[in-house]
Amino acid sequence: MHNLSWILKMAFRDFRKNVAKLLLFVSSIVIGIAALVGISSFGDNLSQDINNQAKELMGADLELKNNQPLGEQPTDSIATRIAEEINFASMVVFPATDDSRLTQVRALAGEYPFYGKLETLPESAESSFRSGGRKALVEKLLLAQFNAQVGDSIKIGELTFLIEGELQKVPGQTGITASVAPAVYIPMEYVEATGLIQYGSRLNYLRYYELPSDQDPELLKTKYEAQWDEARIDADTLADRKRSTGRSFQNLSNFLSLVAFIALLLGCVGVASAVNVFVKEKLASVAVLRCLGVSSWSAMLIYLTQILMMGLLGSLLGAGLGTLLQFALPAVFKDFLPVAVTVQVSWTSVGFGVLTGLFVSVLFALLPLLKIRKVSPMATLRPEAGETKISRDPLRWAVIVTILLFIFGFSFYLLKDWKVALGFTGFVVFAFATLWTVALGIMWMIRRFLPLSLQYPIRQSLANLYRPNNQTVSLIATIGLGTAMISTLFFVQNQLLDEARFAGKEDQPNMLLFDIQSHQVDAVAGRIKDRNLPIMQQVPIVTMALESINGLTKKANEDLPEEERRSRGLYNREFRVSYRDTLIASERLVKGNLRKVENQGDSVFVSFDQGYAERTGINLGDEIIFNVQGRPIKTFVGSFRDIKFNQVSTNFLVLFPENVLNNAPKFHVLITKTANDRQAADVQSEIVREFPNISVINLGMIVETLEEILGKISFVIQFMAFFSIITGILVLISSLIISKYQRMKESILLRTLGASSGVVSKINTLEYFFLGSLASLSGIMLSFLATGLLSKFVFELPFRAAFKEAFFVYLAITLLTVILGWLNGRKIVKVAPMEILRE
Amino acid sequence: MSILSVKQVSKTYQSGSRKLTVLDEVNFDIQAGDTIAIVGPSGSGKTTLLGLCAGLDSASTGSVSLNGQSMENLSEDQRADIRSKFVGFIFQNFQLLPTLTALENVMVPLELKKRKDAKQKALELLTKVGLGNRATHYPTQLSGGEQQRVSIARAFANEPKILFADEPTGNLDTETGEMIEKLIFDLNKEQGTTLVLVTHDLELAKKTNRIIHIKGGKIQEDTYA
């Protein structure tokens, strides 16, 4: 090998004439790196902000929570300030319009939050709300939805409150949680009078503590943990909140980084493809260098150095762009953020991005660059000797294995789960391999079966797809994968919404009334029947907790070593259980039998949801003792059911037989089907007016909320997927520019032979039409497969191919390809034939 | 002293199930300072023979020794090292590196030998071939004749012991061709280099002191002037 300074000198000399071309190569990775650096910087800043604003996020030093009154606690005497909250889901009514909606009512006593504040409009409402009187603070979304404003009334249960202020920001609440359950704050002193605190109400009792600075909440939690566990009290400290919030945002940030990583991988394919063309153009020069006595590695290093320089430049550009990008991210993620995010340069992320960019550009460029080592100096005498095949080169396979390891390693770094990382790597390999195979197959078919009878421009444009140095395969792979990503998101979103809407079209229930007390059942059913609506289900619900499983109590479970311990959730969960001896439409028996209790003293066999049983390690025959309002009931697991949870129906993880719980305290759920939205609104309004404790959910509201949430989530994901599309476009543009000279020569040859510029333009446009069509159709097919798999295994829905949406995606991608191709071709057609002769 | 020795050299290619013999047991020796022309019709094996003699390719059987060094057991990189030390090339299509200026093209063999005076020496050579004022031009900015002159300057730059020229005037008009021929022979004489020419042009061949006729991969005639 020749000395490094000479190699660098030669690299620089060659580089001077290739800067523009090499810039194109690295442009493909700029966007991917920018997305990675942007997300990573944003994640870093967010994690710092969560740490810095953790107190405001929680509003207290310690929080205790239970589903029954907390009673006196040992921490009460230590605290400097204490606040109490009872929260529950309930309907609220705006009397002015008679509109109603399910909300989260929070009855508050004390000066919570101790850190930060409830941000209200007007600002004074935060304190005037606490100064006494029947006043409420209402989530701004809720006010906007029903066109209500400060000064109007809101009815909660039996009481009407004055809307004192509009809630702008509540500690720890995000836009998404506000959409699902908008908050309404009322003073604690009125909560009893609302009439909403009764059996069956799903109440959360919270106590917030401000502690003196010498008290460590963590130590207090450790000290009283056993006592609180025994009483099923959840204790949450600042450190817990930091951890859980940090973890969920780390997950989000990692997921988004993964999407950015896909964009980067697409860019890498672009790099490999462009370097491949670059190398092919350089083979003659390499042969000359070899003739002059340059060793194979030195020759390769001359070009590798250039790639390294451009990789560095591309990575720096990407890192700069990514740092700028994070200024936009707080706006994109605003609905998901519980804290205000500061934007500043994260040097760790920048360094990480630059190193990643440098590494991937070299790694992917090496695949074609390795060919240089094999160039024979004989190519100077016989150009055909320059064709090098390296399919059996062990170094090439080493690079391929390194690429796979890199994809796995990077995804593992982001996902922290080797199985998921392996799955992701498998998916990437599968997607690329599928698109690659489709592209190669199509090219082979065109070559093999292109009929001579086709019109000349069509035949020529199809033949152009396999011209020497073509990038058809890499373009189909990159554009196809970008299309697949966007379409999968699009299709899944549509499928979920369709499914929700579809439920209303068939003979499915579309309204669910819950929290009905036993004494109200007949009256509520009467109102429904009066309107000639069917009572499709009337279900009693009993709440209970799990006392022991096969004799293992909560306490005994805690003492077991971690690997033998059962899920804590089993013991902490409040089970809402119903009883019947038959199955309903949304469930089917998969193991065991539903066994009736016919005589007193018969063993009680309960039925579990199969998925839940699998997750918590419950087996057929297990003995489970439930605690029903203080009374233990011994049961055995008699069967498993497969439940479809995606229907408006009452589904239960645990189902008891009749004649066991009939006398237990219970509440009821009633399900009906209204004819239309108008009727649904009327029924809802009448029921809520007459029975304020009853909550009503109608399908229209579910669809609306789902649309809103999916809209927010999909905006974020589409924003990220957009990087893949941009990368695909950059790869396309770079390929167009790289092949420009060749296209120019072809165009001139055609024009010399008498083709009009119109015919040449037609050939070019058709070529892009075919390329765009092949890439988008391959991507769409892949996305159908992905949507089908997601539907089956994740959402458990029947797959319906969204042909209309697919056609829209096909048109958009193909049109984009044609337009870009046409813009590039316009100049080519205008070049005078003499210009190329002179070259 | 023999600078190039070709013994029983054959070159065969496998084309599908067919074995194609391009050179068939060729033998000859070339003494230092000789000028030799290898002539023959298209497809006769001239270029293959040139490639083997210059160490650009390896023979299927037989041996080639260049400057006393046997080539058959050397790797491609070892042969490259020999080329950089003893061999110069002139090609029909000039084979200049398109991204390098004329001066830089001539400097490459000197730099490979780590000559500190590479630039000065290259400039001298360019001046000698009449292109001192075109040193900073890129190949695409030069005419065919000028490109070939740069190529000649490059070939003589490392003062090779043997110079291989493949149809050096094949791509040039008669007048320019004659000028190039003169330049090659003059520099050859000046540096005492051995010259091996491959050509169709019998007039050019006659300017050498030995002509090897090759046909169908075999030497038909080996005549001395």
UniProtKB/TrEMBL annotation, chain A:
<feature type="domain" description="MacB-like periplasmic core">
    <location>
        <begin position="23"/>
        <end position="195"/>
    </location>
</feature>
<feature type="transmembrane region" description="Helical">
    <location>
        <begin position="421"/>
        <end position="446"/>
    </location>
</feature>
<protein>
    <submittedName>
        <fullName>Permease</fullName>
    </submittedName>
</protein>
<dbReference type="InterPro" id="IPR003838">
    <property type="entry name" value="ABC3_permease_C"/>
</dbReference>
<feature type="domain" description="ABC3 transporter permease C-terminal">
    <location>
        <begin position="719"/>
        <end position="832"/>
    </location>
</feature>
<feature type="transmembrane region" description="Helical">
    <location>
        <begin position="807"/>
        <end position="825"/>
    </location>
</feature>
<keyword id="KW-1003">Cell membrane</keyword>
<feature type="domain" description="ABC3 transporter permease C-terminal">
    <location>
        <begin position="258"/>
        <end position="377"/>
    </location>
</feature>
<dbReference type="Pfam" id="PF02687">
    <property type="entry name" value="FtsX"/>
</dbReference>
<feature type="transmembrane region" description="Helical">
    <location>
        <begin position="21"/>
        <end position="43"/>
    </location>
</feature>
<feature type="transmembrane region" description="Helical">
    <location>
        <begin position="255"/>
        <end position="279"/>
    </location>
</feature>
<keyword id="KW-0472">Membrane</keyword>
<dbReference type="InterPro" id="IPR025857">
    <property type="entry name" value="MacB_PCD"/>
</dbReference>
<feature type="transmembrane region" description="Helical">
    <location>
        <begin position="397"/>
        <end position="415"/>
    </location>
</feature>
<feature type="transmembrane region" description="Helical">
    <location>
        <begin position="349"/>
        <end position="370"/>
    </location>
</feature>
<feature type="transmembrane region" description="Helical">
    <location>
        <begin position="768"/>
        <end position="795"/>
    </location>
</feature>
<keyword id="KW-0812">Transmembrane</keyword>
<dbReference type="Pfam" id="PF12704">
    <property type="entry name" value="MacB_PCD"/>
</dbReference>
<keyword id="KW-1133">Transmembrane helix</keyword>
<feature type="transmembrane region" description="Helical">
    <location>
        <begin position="300"/>
        <end position="329"/>
    </location>
</feature>
<dbReference type="InterPro" id="IPR038766">
    <property type="entry name" value="Membrane_comp_ABC_pdt"/>
</dbReference>
<dbReference type="GO" id="GO:0005886">
    <property type="term" value="C:plasma membrane"/>
</dbReference>
From TrEMBL, chain B:
<dbReference type="InterPro" id="IPR017911">
    <property type="entry name" value="MacB-like_ATP-bd"/>
</dbReference>
<dbReference type="GO" id="GO:0022857">
    <property type="term" value="F:transmembrane transporter activity"/>
</dbReference>
<keyword id="KW-0547">Nucleotide-binding</keyword>
<dbReference type="GO" id="GO:0016887">
    <property type="term" value="F:ATP hydrolysis activity"/>
</dbReference>
<dbReference type="InterPro" id="IPR003439">
    <property type="entry name" value="ABC_transporter-like_ATP-bd"/>
</dbReference>
<dbReference type="InterPro" id="IPR027417">
    <property type="entry name" value="P-loop_NTPase"/>
</dbReference>
<keyword id="KW-1278">Translocase</keyword>
<keyword id="KW-0813">Transport</keyword>
<feature type="domain" description="ABC transporter">
    <location>
        <begin position="4"/>
        <end position="225"/>
    </location>
</feature>
<dbReference type="GO" id="GO:0005524">
    <property type="term" value="F:ATP binding"/>
</dbReference>
<protein>
    <submittedName>
        <fullName>ABC transporter</fullName>
    </submittedName>
</protein>
<dbReference type="GO" id="GO:0098796">
    <property type="term" value="C:membrane protein complex"/>
</dbReference>
<comment type="similarity">
    <text>Belongs to the ABC transporter superfamily. Macrolide exporter (TC 3.A.1.122) family.</text>
</comment>
<dbReference type="Pfam" id="PF00005">
    <property type="entry name" value="ABC_tran"/>
</dbReference>
<keyword id="KW-0067">ATP-binding</keyword>
<dbReference type="InterPro" id="IPR003593">
    <property type="entry name" value="AAA+_ATPase"/>
</dbReference>
<dbReference type="InterPro" id="IPR017871">
    <property type="entry name" value="ABC_transporter-like_CS"/>
</dbReference>
